[in-house]
Amino acid sequence: MIQLSNMQSSEGGTILLIIILTHAVISRACHRAEYQIGNECCPMCPAGTRVNKHCTEFRSTSCLPCDEGTYMDNPTGMTQCFSCRICAPGSGMKVKTVCSSNSNALCEPQEGYFCVEPPKERNCEVAQKHSDCNPGQYIQQPGSPSADTVCSPCAEGTFSNGTLSRCQPHTQCEQMDKATVKAGTLHSDAECGETKSSSVVIVAVIITIVLLAVIITVVAVIFKKIQKKNVRPNSEENQTELMQDHTKPVDHGGA
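The line above is the sequence of TNFR-Cys domain-containing protein; the predicted structure tokens follow.
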């Protein structure tokens, strides 16, 4: 009984080994440009197409072009093409290369965005908006499609509102003969005003101008009054002379 059982076990193992070897031989029999369906090695469909009907021992593989919005970038034995990649504008992406029947679309960051991770196969998968520098910082390195903006703090005595490529020195009010009304900070310039001495000079100039205007006005009024007084007597004398001329006797040259 033991010997019979061992024989049956041996025969079963032999049959299983034969099946495995047969399957391996059949699998190895298909060429690189073929795919296996059952016991048949069918020719693959070229890139840009998909399998419509598998081959049989009487006919070859039937292929169809990929539908719009799908692609197949390698020879295949698949019955469906892959869906094209979508570069969603809402995610900061735009189309770099449009999808075709034999290649997938490639995406890249929009203006003002950068690719978070190094592009895979020339395609950017995730984009992020460039960072804004804060007041008190300057833009050391502008953002690019592959890197974020690099910001650095301003040094003491300089300022930036966050949009400058380098910090600007504070205005030195004293050098302009002005007083510092508000000291400069890292994010704002100093504010200057007139000094006290300048204010006194300005007030003195204004008073002088007003006084001159008053004097000129008074002189003009007095001059007009004098002119009027001179005009009246002359007018009376002229009238008197006219009256005297009318009362003189007329000389007829006789008697």
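Note on the example: The chain has two helices and 16 strands. The helical segments are 2-29, 196-247.
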